[in-house]
Amino acid sequence: MILDEFLHNLHFDIDKASIPNWEVDWEDGPLPYKLYYDLPEIPLSLDIPLTFEDQKTPVKPDLRKIGHFLWDVYGITQFSQTVTPINSTERKLDAMHSYRRFAPSGGALYPNELYVYLKIDDIPDGVYHFDVSHHRLVLLREGNFDDYLTRSLGYRCDLTTCLGTVFISTMFWKNFFKYNNFSYRLQGLDAGVLMGQLLEVAKRFGFASGVYYQYLDRAINHLLGLKEDEESVYSAIPLTIEPTMWSGNRYGENVSASDLLREIPPIQVKHYVRTKKMKEFPMLIKMNEAAMIHSTPFHWVKKKERRKDDGKEIPLPLVNRLSYDFLSTCRKRFSPDMDFNLTKISAKQLAYLLYEATESFSYRNDLEAEHLEKLRVSIFVCLYNIEGIPNGAYYYNNTNHSLYLVNAGDHRLQLQSGLSLDNVNLLQVPITLHIVGDKDYNKNSLGYRGYRIQQMEAGILVQKLLLAASLLDMGGHPLLGFDVNLTDHIYNLSPSGKTSLIQIPIGPYRQRPWLMGRLCT
User: Fold this and answer.
1) By percentage, how much of the chain surpasses pLDDT 90?
2) What whole-number distance in Å separates Cα of residue 432 and Cα of residue 428?
3) Of the chain's two ends, which shows fewer C-beta atoms within 10 Å, N or C?
4) Is this prediction's pTM over 0.85?
């Protein structure tokens, strides 16, 4: 199967992209976290604050603060147990246990891992893995790698001013074992959701941050000791308390990954997955290889014209950014299934949801010369029972904070018919959001890497929307199992070269009957 056909089917006809007769071997599934062994370990403080400390002036963090930062980004924060109905023949209860984090993940499988290159006073400079299961750092490679990483990023960041750099990787098998080839689409979104959480936490800690989507893959994977047929880095995010790290448009000499690989020796590390018989995933490896960058310089994304606002305009109530307890909002976040409970939503609540999510989206990145982009993806929404707003499908223009009617009427039954699983009752949902992007995913500028980047940017916006929903005492359930052709038709997206990337029902909900415990002090 050629790569273009694979990506097309992955989005529009998943059955053609999937491996036929796929059966999930739950007994041989991987752990939701990576475990290294026979390496130096550094415990992190278990005294996790329940709210953020006052961050009036940025201060270089110590190990305790780094531990709190990593826990707030990706630590295990919740244990839950759900009991399925009694089997009528065996008369036994089946209980499903899961360890959850503030950032959601498809199937709670968490295919991403966090690595950090740290330069703080309490520990040796070097590259570490964040072991979430023990809340500790594992030292992979000791030393100062500022120059190596600066060249891996194409001389676009002054790493000497950075306290560290976070690398978000994807371990292919961690959700391929369940979703097979569909996991390639899901992995980018999961990485983006995690990035959205990291960027928000960094703000609260007083860290300036920026996302690098473009770097020399093999050089960074080599530094971290990753086997590319198992795992690969998806983004690099430097952190600093001195917001001068961005080097603008300046480039040094051209660099190739092959040259960098010869500068530092490979490291031999051992890790535990739990799976005894791992299946092959050749399409994921092919896509990862096709998306790799082997030498500088990197590329900018060309700006595209904004959507022409046709249809009836409905200005939303003017609102301001909300001030709130971030960690409390993270703890409240909930993904309802059949738990949605239809009640009338005010136009002001809807305005807060859309404004808070889009205004908080802005972040530094390496895709445009200005480095700071509001939205490359956009929001469309099907509304029902919203006070003062007629039922219908709308485009949200975040620039003038208005809705534009695309298709009048109640679309809930259509959307329900497009679900691949009946795990959400959309008749109980007042707000069904769709994040929309370009069908060509900037392929001309970014090649196949553009697809992955588009999924990550959609994931960042997903996390912003989920946090805003939680803040408003509503739940949101990201869904990929929906009929993209149907939603594209509802919003008339084809003439503009756009397509729906993910669907998010949002609304009030009933509490679920489950055992749930918070893992914090």
Assistant:
1) 75
2) 10
3) C
4) yes
